[in-house]
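Attaching the record inline, Q. Sequence:
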Amino acid sequence: MLHTSLKNILSTTKTHLSKLEKLGILTVQDLLEFFPRAVENSEIKNNFSQIVLNEKNTISGELTSFHLEKTRFGKRIAKAECFLEDGTSINVVWFRIPYNLKNFEGSQQIFLVGKIIRNYGKIQIQNPEVHFEQNVHVGNIRPIYPESPPITSKWLREKISGILLFAKEFPEILPPDIISQESLLLKSEAIRKIHFPQTPEDWEKAKARLGFEEIFEIQLRVMQSKIFREKQKENLFPVPFSADQIKEDFKNLPFTLTLAQKKSLKDILFDLEKNRPMHRLLQGDVGAGKTIVAFLSALQVLRSGFQVAILAPTEILAKQHFESFLSFIEPFSKKNKKSLLGEQFPCELLTGSTKEKEKKNIKQRLKNDDIKVIIGTHAILTEDTVFKNLGLAVIDEQHRFGVKQRTILSQNLSHILSMTATPIPRSLALTIYGDQDLSIIDEKPAGRKDIVTRIIIDEKTRNLMTKFIDDQILKNRQIFWVCPLREESEKLDLRNVKNEFLHISQDLFPHRRVQFLHGKMKPKEKAEIMRQFQAHEFDILVSTSVIEVGVDIKNSTVMVIENSERFGLSQLHQFRGRIGRNNMQSYCFLMVDSPEQKTTERLRAMEKSNDGFHLSEVDLRLRGAGEIYGIKQSGIPDLKCADLNDLDTMKKARDWAQKILESDLYLKNFPALKQQIEQEEVYL
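Structure, as predicted:
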């Protein structure tokens, strides 16, 4: 039953089912694994003495005097009185009339859930939930879920309670010894208690059990992968390390590498001559200079007679890498007056928009070893792409490529160098990247200035910012302007690209060139707009969060982010990384529409630090792993319950994974665990 489609089991509307599908919730199992983000006590209060003012309360009483009124602005509201058992009454007001009260008359025993306040001397409950009987919403510890209208916590509680009996069908993948010695709940019990706990302690125990399984599963997977890799004792593409050659290459560079870049390059070059294929992740902050390290590594592989593939997640980034690589190798050709590109290292670009005839020609030349460097997108990862002797595959923004896609390249037993600009806390990196050797570039190239970041809250600072931006454009600078939404939303009061584009182009900067970009545009259209921006054909780009990681706009010095409180620090930092990629001073403005203490605390960290790794640690502490990393775009597994600040649990999970693999590498004695490890393609 766990794999039963929700459309076959839930009694609900097509709108709700469509929204669930967009959220990736298609089956009974998906819905049962959509865990609450918090719980709250809905203990029923019958007497006034039990009520806590300025907090959410669940009260039971007799609802009377229900009637509709019109405000002076013409809006209809509903009012009533609720009499408690002790005879006291509470004023009730709804600014939107509840559906289940539209035909209400007379009086009736009722349950109300809402915040109770003192309003002009009266005790009042505003916009409370209405329930006519005690149910999953009142009288218990009730779950609060991440909401995406029309999918609400109320709707989820009702639907999940109806399918909770299927929790018993979840397979138990943790070995009995772990459950016993770590005092963990059974999986089925944990699923039941995380949704409908009897006490807050029940919920914490359920979270701990499910969080342990998440970490344990990842640890087991990456450790097993690393052991398998290290068993491979043959390096088909040995690249001898030559200190003299590297020193000569450094002399030809028009800039000096940082110590972190040199250390990372050394790690890679030592890997290339070991007796097994390299499998290394190069992690570096935005603008840290990962690409030049990858190019220098590729050059050594090419000199040893092997081919190199460089993969990027988008066409515009692939084209940028292609152009950068061509300009990169030119200094090396001047000394011996040979064209490395033409005579020794022919290089081609292969993307989805490459014409079919040209694709066939490129692939035939790759097979014949007539092309030494191929740079492109997913178009490289097809069955008919055959390499003669692929020595190194460089995968940029590796999380945008699935495990199976990356395996296509590693099947050549070639060296794999993955790169990511996603700043990840060290605790998380050690957990999910345990199957790869890790190099970190944590310095910026010389000459790069820290980006000045300021929070913009009121109208006065907005006006000052507008004047400042106009001055930057006068100095031939370009501006990124990021908005959370593509179009206006009735449910969310957030800035959107289309409205902001009109406001910016018509009201704020009618004398400047403004363009907009959003994710629903066709790839060619997006690529053309980015090309125009790179060519400085307009001054301001109003965009959703689709602006590409890694794309260089040399003149961009200002980043404006609307509704910045809606984004995590790591994502804000990556947006900010689109600017400051030159020696000019750059500025980032974080627009806030509804500042709160916790929001302001997070954003102040952006003002104080330009260190992406530090910011990711702050975000992890303030928001938790589930909110930050439970998104596919981050490339990190969906950690719904794991607490990555709990180093003790992480160590225990790692120790258990190691113990099991030492005695049973292929998990023959743990069939359920083996099936779980093998059945899913995860983004690690």
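The domain at 43-139 is CATH 2.40.50.140 (OB fold (Dihydrolipoamide Acetyltransferase, E2P)). The mean pLDDT is 86.

More tomorrow.
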